[in-house]
Amino acid sequence: MRLAVFGDVHGNRFALEAVLEDIRQSAPDAVLNLGDSVWGAADPAGAWALQAEHAPVTVRGNTDERVAGMRPGKERMRSWLLAQLPASVPGTLAVLPTFVDTADGEVRAAHGSPRSPWEDLLLTEEGEHTRPAHFKELRERLGNFTFDSGGRVCIVGHTHHEMLAVVDGVTVVNAGPVSRQKDGLPLAR
N or C: which terminal CB in the chain sees fewer CB atoms within 10 Å? Predict the structure, then answer.
């Protein structure tokens, strides 16, 4: 099975168009969209329309929870986004799962970690510093998704850092963002 995976669009229609064109040329069997779909200012309505048509959001991201009103804070940005987007978007985002399994249970997709879209799967914060997660932390964050239970690959986004680790036979991948517009680089990745 060939899977295309992307996430962290953050409302960047322009970068998403390039990513979707690349996906079309690759002709995958399925597309997984790891969330954080519209929280950004580079045409969130256009980004939502493209995702709805070509690659609907698969799992709920942390900023999707903000758009859905599930997490307080940043109300000025949320209000602006709600004025740009179809009225159905918050409800659509609110009911998305935290993770999904595909490919006969061999692949798990989540935004941050299978436990929470706010939790980094591959990174651990220690005070003011961030470090790669230790294998023990990864095992705990993966929960029941193990090699022995048929798990082979867990794919996440959230941190905007491409990463790869293997823990107890499970390959853990951070796919990175569609673009790094929040970091000042709006081009497609």
Answer: N
